[in-house]
Write a structure and sequence with these properties.
alpha+beta, six-stranded mixed β-sheet, three-stranded mixed β-sheet, 26 helices, 16 strands
């Protein structure tokens, strides 16, 4: 599970980070924001602690990073069958067109290319709707002709709004499998898929396989539904072979035997496609709590699948921030206390919380579904039974969060000053917002996703297409409830009993208003994390109306939402957490569906227009993403590698084209 960045400006949260990291680049000279276009801001992040790594650790991180980058084409193909063909065409034009590159039309084409690379395809990375070039179809055709590409079908896909209109369809009126652009299914309906898995899944298996996680479901001419695996010898074989080559090299530099065993099992999984091997890998991977360098690599998150079963390819390499990890280690050490005191039915609590490992990390390489847009927190593995029996790893990604903050400080305006009601609210955010937000993310990832349990016989896929949003809401509510608990001050995690109010202010402001700057007018709220936030904020607002817990105020024609009773709001968070935990634990699909469709999807059109207009006046970009630092081997006079240096590129388009050349496999 992932926790994506929440839109907030936190003044001064990372001043030390800015000043300490690269002596040759002082805090004033290092520019974090390197490009802006459409609704997107592209940033670069630093890698604190890189120079303190041993040569062995650097080599380990380097090969893991190379393995991650080789999975890039897999995600592109998963997102839509036409994506790679379109990307190859666009790359060809950008690299070979020798006409006027300063014309308005070519600049419009270039912006389309940047959006395409950012979204890993033709659909918006967050809203999931198809986007289109601002230049004309005839001009695009002329560019293709100029570099020797003639493909009317490709042009039709790019410009026709009726072809692949949405990546992951959430239209409950139709067949969400047939309507989705994702490349997880071919020739099958939703009923076909659900009947197929119902025929092979054993709901009483105490160690259930994540059926379908790494396969495409197809129906052949014979009418038989079957799965095609993503593995060596199957779909994506060429990319996975390159991934495994780098993983093999990484084994030689692993820090301990657990890492070596885990990598060996992962390679075996990629060769066989056997999901039991994937489970075996995750069990081994969870054991490594002592290594400095860590990674994720594989078909992991199922957000993009309309049925919540197929996993997108993802890679991530990181190093531990030892000083910052003290906070998360305190949380994980007290995990049983938090579980025992959670405001949910005792039947749904874990009697014994096992193996929750939590730390703060700094990203070294983002890849696949985490590049360029990346989460700020991750909790894995996703299999409930592995979490129950073997534990989980939770991470908060410090250098990504800090880069968001420092990049925002480079901007001339902020959403905080525009959407906060009072000076008191703004000052509270500036004083406590950074730590309160980080603690909420820690609780979400370290404990929230790892809390609770399913009742015997309840399937992990019982929530269907609503699973991701409900799970993110469950983890967010767990974090919101405990952020305000006196235990947090007692443990030394929260600095003041009143600090939690900054996070409550921000969460309600974002959930009811600010996040909708990301959604086009007239469109529903479809992304799982945004649905989660709207569900929580809207439910609490509606349920609290009789007591005026959250008050809607208007000043000078502008709308604000103001919390009047923080204590009662915490009680409402507890009530909703209890209900969502019940829904998940009992597998109550209809109740989960009702919550999402009632509170999470529809946006008030008048408020939506107002919020968009106010945000546009700030001239800010609602979405952020990153380029990776380049990690390069340094060779000595005898040809051996003596070091691995980090180079902080500021060329977004250049990195995208380089990745296409070096890591393209499909």
């Amino acid at each position: 599970m992932k926790q994506f960045f929440k839109m907030i400006l936190i003044a001064g949260a990372a001043a030390a980070f800015a000043a300490c990291e690269n002596p040759k680049d002082g805090a004033d000279s290092f520019r974090y924001t390197i490009d802006q276009f459409a609704d997107i801001r592209v940033m670069r992040y630093r890698i604190p602690g890189w120079e303190q790594l041993s040569l062995q650790q650097k080599a380990y991180a380097y090969h893991l990073s190379e393995a991650a980058k080789y999975g890039r084409d897999i995600l592109w193909d998963q997102n839509c069958p036409a994506n790679l063909s379109i990307r190859h065409c666009v790359e060809n034009i950008l690299e070979n067109f020798d006409g006027d590159r300063e014309s308005e039309d070519f600049l419009a084409f270039t912006e389309y290319a940047k959006r395409l690379f950012f979204s890993n395809g033709i659909h918006h990375h967050y809203a999931e709707d198809k986007f289109f070039p601002a230049c004309s179809r005839d001009y695009f055709a002329s560019l293709m002709n100029a570099v020797g590409v003639v493909d009317d079908n490709l042009l039709e896909i790019i410009y026709n709004p009726d072809i692949y209109p949405q990546r992951r369809s959430t239209n409950t009126e139709g067949d969400i499998v047939l309507q989705s652009a994702v490349n997880f299914y071919e020739g099958v309906t939703r009923d076909d898929v659900e009947r197929y898995y119902a025929s092979i899944v054993n709901p009483n298996d105490p160690h259930p396989i994540s059926y379908g996680l790494n396969t495409k479901v197809v129906k052949g001419p014979d009418g038989v539904v079957r799965e095609l695996p993503w593995c060596i010898g199957g779909i994506y074989s060429a990319a996975i072979e390159k991934i495994c080559e780098e993983l093999e090299l990484a084994i030689d530099f692993a820090e301990n035997d657990i890492q070596k065993r885990a990598l060996g099992i992962l390679i075996e999984y990629y060769h066989t496609g056997d999901l039991r091997k994937w489970d075996e890998f995750n069990i081994e991977w969870v054991k490594d709590t002592i290594g400095t360098v860590d990674f994720i690599n594989g078909f992991i998150e199922d957000y993009n699948d309309p049925l919540g079963r197929k996993a997108s390819w993802e890679g991530y390499v990181n190093i531990k921030d030892f000083e910052a990890s003290a906070r998360t280690e305190t949380l994980s050490a007290n995990a049983q206390w938090f579980e025992d005191h959670a405001p949910v039915d005792p039947r749904f609590r874990k009697s014994v919380v096992r193996g929750i490992s939590a730390k703060v990390i700094n990203a070294v390489c983002l890849a696949g579904d985490s590049y360029p847009s990346t989460p700020i927190g991750i909790n894995l593995p996703n299999a409930d039974w592995i979490r129950r029996d073997h534990g989980s790893k939770s991470v908060t990604i410090a250098n990504i969060t800090h880069t968001y903050d420092l990049s925002s400080q480079e901007m001339p305006a902020s959403t905080l000053t525009e959407f906060a009601w009072s000076k008191e609210e703004i000052e509270r955010a500036k004083r406590w917002g950074a730590i309160a937000d980080e603690v909420h993310t820690d609780l979400h990832e370290c404990l929230g996703h790892g809390s609770g349990q399913l009742l015997p016989g309840v399937s992990t896929t019982a929530m269907g297409e609503y699973a991701s949003a409900l799970e993110e809401a469950r983890a967010d509510l767990f974090g919101l409830y405990y952020t305000a608990d006196p235990k947090m001050v007692e443990l030394g995690i929260m600095p003041d009993p009143e600090a939690y109010k900054a996070e409550y202010d921000n969460y309600i402001r974002n959930g009811l208003m600010v996040q909708f700057t990301r959604v086009e007018l007239g469109r529903p709220n479809t992304e799982a994390h945004m649905q989660n936030r709207k569900l929580i904020a809207e439910w609490c607002y509606q349920k609290g109306l009789p007591e005026n817990v959250i008050e809607k105020k208007v000043r000078n024609g502008k709308t604000y939402f103001v919390i009047n009773d923080y204590v009662r709001l915490r009680e409402l968070f507890a009530e909703l957490l209890a209900e969502i935990q019940r829904i998940k634990s009992e597998g109550d699909y209809e109740a989960g569906k009702a919550l999402i469709e009632t509170y999470a999807v529809n946006i008030d059109p008048e408020l939506h227009r107002e919020v968009r207009a106010r945000y546009e006046a700030l001239n800010l970009k609602p979405y952020g993403g990153f380029v990776n630092p380049d990690i390069r081997p340094v060779y000595g006079a005898d040809g051996t590698i003596t070091d691995y240096e980090v180079v902080y590129t500021d060329d977004y388009l250049g990195q995208m084209l380089f990745y296409g050349r070096k890591y393209g496999t499909l």
